[in-house]
Design a protein that fits this description.
single chain, alpha/beta, Alkaline Phosphatase, subunit A, 2 domains, 8-stranded mixed beta sheet, 15% strand, globular
Length: 454
């Protein structure tokens, strides 16, 4: 078997009961393209990715919105942590979620905000079993292109999902804790454990069946990489010099994430003051550490083409989590009902900036990962925002929406665009679906692409 044939379609390392997905490598892509097209060296098509990141309770808009339209100049206070990736951002003002508005349903804007953010649908007001929203944009994409990857999509978050209970003025907890909806009546729960995400992406090292404690000790002694070491060494000999460096960097990143997951799992058993928010076992005890670890796993999932579609929810809608680590001891939801109080404005702005600081970590990871002559961020569309604008007004117009990445060159970032009032957020989603190769005539209340992004 010649080198070209032996490299064809080798996108996994294999070992005893283990497989490890590989990142995009030019040597492998060239072999795959040559086999498919009969033309050695012809570049393989690289995929696009989409991620949706949600923050609850709205944003302090005066500290979010750039003063001028057009090219991004000085970023406002909340967005300052994104200065290093400013050229990769589109700030989109004026977009609205008609499905989040109350109509005749009265209170419940927090539930409507999250339930409608990706579906754009108006959720049925109920706290019983007859929940109904709409198919979310991530799941519309997953239904069309999810078969191309091991996982059609990943649904992640910091706080767990619920499917029952009365959480917001007669709205089911399913609405305020789930962002992804496979069907109008079937929300997809979030995975909050980094350990579980890692195991799902890379598998568990084999242990003695029936001996749970032995299996745990075995996992701590050996890295997943130990099980695929022989296959990795064989592949290294067949790669180009630049691909060998890339593979080394990737394997180091996998081992580093694995180490942090195991450390978090071990520290979870130590005594500590109970936090005032749900915390899954095996997760870092601090909010930022948990979110950054999940973001690193998301970057690895994109890098290995394990999935091309991910959602992440920082906290469930209406969350009253406090952030003493940044000096904010009042609850987030409490602060969002500011009543014009400057001190509460400052607290909300500080929380918003803290969340954006974590976003900068994720975008920085994607920009640092090369894929051919581009980066993962070049090949991505990352939406960041909330289904509420001002948390005090509970309004669903002029939403805080940020789009990062270049979508393979089909987006022109580095700008602030303002659209006509009540322009559907669904216009953005329809264009994203088209870029993912989804043939959709409409999505939600949109039948046209958001203008001016190209």
């Amino acid at each position: 078997m010649d080198r070209q044939t032996s490299l064809t379609r080798r996108w996994f390392l294999r070992g005893t009961g283990m497989t490890l997905a590989l990142p995009w490598l030019e040597s492998l892509a060239a072999g795959q393209a040559a086999t498919a097209a009969g033309s050695p060296g012809q570049p393989a098509a690289m995929p696009l990715r989409m991620a949706f990141l949600y923050v609850p309770n709205g944003i302090h808009m005066p500290d979010w919105t750039p003063k001028n339209e057009g090219a991004l100049g000085d970023l406002p206070p909340i967005l300052k942590p994104l200065e290093a990736v400013k050229a990769e951002l589109l700030l989109l003002s004026g977009l609205a979620l008609d499905g989040g508005r109350p109509y005749a349903d009265g209170p419940g804007d927090h539930s409507r905000a999250l339930a409608s953010f990706l579906t754009t649908a108006h959720p049925v007001k109920t706290h019983g079993k007859d929940i109904r929203a709409g198919i979310s944009v991530d799941q519309a994409a997953a239904a069309a292109v999810g078969h191309k990857t091991r996982f059609p999509s990943l649904e992640l978050g910091h706080e767990p999902s619920a499917l029952a209970g009365n959480c917001d003025s007669g709205y089911s907890c399913a609405y305020s804790s789930n962002i992804s909806w496979r069907t109008p009546t079937s929300p997809l729960g979030k995975e909050t454990s980094p350990q579980a995400v890692f195991d799902r992406l890379f598998g568990k090292p084999p242990g003695r069946e029936g001996d749970k404690e032995g299996s745990r000790q075995h996992q701590r002694r050996k890295s997943i990489l130990d099980f695929v070491a022989e296959d990795a060494q064989d592949l290294q000999r067949r790669l180009s010099g630049s691909d060998r460096v890339k593979l080394d960097e990737y394997l180091y990143a996998v081992r580093e994430v694995e180490r942090r997951v195991i450390e978090a799992e071990q520290s979870a058993g130590k005594s500590a003051k109970a936090p005032d928010y749900p915390r899954p076992a095996g997760s870092p005890k601090d909010f930022a550490g948990h979110v950054r670890l999940m973001f690193d796993l998301m970057a690895l999932a994109f890098q290995t083409d394990s999935t091309r579609i991910i959602t992440f929810v920082y906290a469930n809608e209406g969350s009253n989590r406090s952030y003493p680590e940044i000096g904010v001891t009042s609850g987030h939801h409490e602060l969002s009902h500011h009543g014009g109080d400057p001190k509460k404005h400052a607290g909300i702005s500080a929380i918003n900036r803290y969340h954006v600081t974590l976003l900068s970590h994720f975008l920085g990871k994607l920009r640092a990962l090369q894929e051919g002559d581009t980066t993962l961020l070049d090949r991505s569309m990352v939406v960041y925002g909330s289904g509420l604008s001002d948390g005090n007004r509970h309004n669903h117009d002029d939403l805080p929406v940020l789009l990062a990445g270049r979508a393979g060159g089909t987006l022109r970032p580095g700008r602030h665009l303002r659209f006509a009032p009540d322009t559907p957020l669904a216009n953005l989603y329809l264009g994203m679906l088209w870029r993912m190769g989804v043939k959709a005539e409409k999505f939600g209340d949109s039948r046209e692409e958001l203008a001016g992004l190209r």
